[in-house]
Amino acid sequence: MELIVGNIAFSTWSLRPWLVLKRCGAEFTLTEVQLYGPGYKEELARVSPSGKVPLLKVDGETIWDSMAISVFAAERYPQVRLWPADAHARWLARSVACEMHSSFMGLRSDCGMGPDAQGVVHTMVGPDRAPPPTSEAVADDVRRLVEIIRTMRGRFGADGPYLFGEWSVPDAFLTPVATRFRHYQINLAAHGDVDGVAATYVAELLQQPDFLEWTELAVTVRP
Ligand SMILES: N[C@@H](CCC(=O)N[C@@H](CS)C(=O)NCC(=O)O)C(=O)O
Fold it and tell me: Which of 9, 67, 70, 186 has a CA-to-CA distance to 1 between 20 and 30 Å?
């Protein structure tokens, strides 16, 4: 299998299937496509039916979209249990992952990763930090995410440090958000995280071994 991703330093969509496939113990090669440089659209068009990454090449097919790759992985590696075993937890885990997949436009646009209009490159992996955004759209998104994290941790978090206790797909989908919170220095306590439950969870995501490996790749694959 080959996983084709965007820039490891800042392609938030690409990080998700990497985390999912690593969790499965899958064997795959990694190809990095440099986004946003001259001619990158043409290069993407050659490999990607949607003109976007991530992509997974497997068994003669190209699966595009991070959610579709995660669904494939859950089928291919059922023993790994990528979704919670408890049915109620599973229904809600899928709701969280799908909401993450389709929403939070305030965060995506005002806490962007990659080059901004001034040419500053914001990354998921480096020590650099940016000033916290002040828009109401971001505040609304952060409040909703804090609510999700606190609710799921409170209901299902007893068996481990992740959203539903043991690691599951929503943790992969929330890890890029954790990097946005870190990079843009967002104070979760000011958005409803009264006792630090969400902040503790976010810190856990940022120290997942597979995420730390991704961080290393950003340094070694591309200087
Ligand atoms: N729904 C897609 C979104 C993919 C996406 O937007 N990828 C970005 C990379 S971070 C991309 O390929 N951007 C290139 C472009 O839009 O030109 C997924 O989850 O895989």
Answer: 9
Nearest Cα residue to atom 16 of ligand 1: 52
Mean pLDDT in residue range 20-29:
98
Specify the pairing of strand 114-115 against strand 2-5.
unpaired
Instruction: Write the pLDDT tens digit of every residue in 95-116.
Output: 999 999 999 999 999 999 999 9
Q: What is the pLDDT of residues 64-78, one digit of tens each?
A: 999 999 999 999 999
Mapped onto helix, strand or coil, the DSSP state of residue 109 is helix
Q: What is the chain's length? A: 223
Judge contact between 38 and 90, C-beta under 8 A: no
Name all residues whose Cβ lies below 6 A of ligand 1.
6, 11-13, 35, 52-54, 65-67
pTM of this structure? 0.96
Domains and CATH numbers, the chain: 2-80+213-220 (3.40.30.10), 87-208 (1.20.1050.10)
Report residue 56: phi and psi, to 5°: -120, 120
What's the 35 CA to ligand 1 centre distance in angstroms? 10
- Residue 150's Cα: distance from chain center in Å? 18
